[in-house]
Amino acid sequence: FKGKSRQLTILARQSVKVFPVLRIFNIWKKRILIFIYMDSKKHIYSYSRASIYISRYECHERIWVTLDNCVEVGRIANTYNLTEVDKYVNSFVLKNFPALLSTGEFLKLPFERLAFVLSSNSLKHCTELELFKATCRWLRLEEPRMDFAAKLMKNIRFPLMTPQELINYVQTVDFMRTDNTCVNLLLEASNYQMMPYMQPVMQSDRTAIRSDTTHLVTLGGVLRQQLVVSKELRMYDEKAHEWKSLAPMDAPRYQHGIAVIGNFLYVVGGQSNYDTKGKTAVDTVFRFDPRYNKWMQVASLNEKRTFFHLSALKGYLYAVGGRNAAGELPTVECYNPRTNEWTYVAKMSEPHYGHAGTVYGGVMYISGSYHLALTEFTSDNFPSFEGQPVPSQQLHN
User: Fold this and answer.
1) Which of the listed residues 201, 225, 241 is the one where a domain comes to its end?
2) Which residue numbers delimit the BACK domain (predicted)?
3) Residue 132 belongs to what domain range?
4) How far apart are CA 14 and CA 109, in angstroms?
5) Which residue in 74, 281, 352, 394 has a CA-CA distance of 20 to 30 Å to 292?
């Protein structure tokens, strides 16, 4: 090191991103870099905290963070309160966690960093079972670590495991049967899996898919040139700038309703054939689970509907108006995921079909159709299903 100061940066191998990290007196720069490059702990720990002054210096040296040294770099960052370095190490460990699991360095991770990784939605390419097994290895390395068992297990998403995985690999672990917190986690997973229809309204951090991105999806519709109804489900991948196919529906759909509750996609009604009169309307309802890329059928509507509006409001689905072979519909149905039932609620004063709708501020608005008015459904008593909820209705010219 020459001169008074240089910018010290940190760089992950196989990356071109330069990250400013810390600034220290020139007299100590060589000591830190000796550890980073030579893995010599004595050159770091032989100097007291008072010897290192953390400030904003500029140094153009690059520190390589690798699977072999990330744990020790993180330890140094934590010891000397190097916040930016610590954040970078967290990011590196999170991004490379699947590879880190196969090294001995994984077992050296401190509790705080392991808990951070296990709690993250950004953790990719690891199943929950793999995370559980790895965490058990970490806990069993040293007896005092077992004190962290319950805290770490809270970050494992047991409801996302299969029943076979829970029975064969999780329930066979001793502390999962003896620790009260762990027992409750297993009960939570069991209850969640035994009530598939209720899962959209049972969502929590442990039932959510590990993802930090949202995606635009398209479903069904008509290929206009051939007038063929599609059953395809596609997701737009922003990074690849392309549409990717997901599991298709069992039957094609056109003029159907789509809504989301708890990150489950519902497809309601519509028709399977191209028919502008709505005579081939259907009453079937399907739900898509993005965690497993699978469809399941739920309770059907009380009436066949097409050209209608569907909204999700406070954990319920509302199918409004539409038409079928019998004509235009003024009726409104509400789906309760807790009971897997559709129930009639107060109907509109006039039939509507081909209309638009949306939810805003806890209120569903319906507009258009041949009745050129705005219909407002207030939702004050929608969530209460002690009896039948009856929405009030107002027309706005």
Assistant:
1) 201
2) 70-171
3) 8-201
4) 22
5) 281
> Which alpha helices (H) appear in the chain, and where do they start and end?
26-38, 42-45, 70-79, 83-95, 97-100, 111-119, 128-140, 149-153, 163-165, 174-178, 180-194
How do residues 11-35 score in pLDDT, each as one tens digit?
Answer: 444 433 434 444 444 444 445 555 5
User: What is the number of domains present in the chain?
Assistant: 2
Of 318, 256, 265, 330, the closest CA to residue 296 belongs to 265
Considering the domain architecture, whether residues 178 and 229 belong to the same structural domain is answered as: no
Same domain, 177 and 50: yes
Domain match, 70 and 122 both: yes
CATH of the domain at 95: 1.25.40.420
Strand partners, 23: 55
Measured N-to-C along each axis, helices 128-140 and 111-119 cross at an angle, to the nearest 10 degrees, of 170
**What are phi and psi for residue 384, nearest 5 degrees?**
-90, 115
Task: Find tokens 């029975």 and name the residue.
Answer: 167
Q: Of the candidates 293, 369, 285, 368, which has an alpha carbon nearest to the alpha carbon of residue 319?
A: 285
Same domain, 232 and 313: yes
Distances (CA, A) of 208 to 50, 200, 205, 291, 355: 45, 10, 5, 9, 33
Pairing mode of beta strands 355-360, 323-324: unpaired
Question: What's the N-to-C CA distance of the chain in angstroms?
Answer: 76
pLDDT at 373 over 90: no
Per the domain annotation, does 207 fall within a domain?
no
Among 20, 181, 17, which Cα is nearest to 85's? Answer: 20
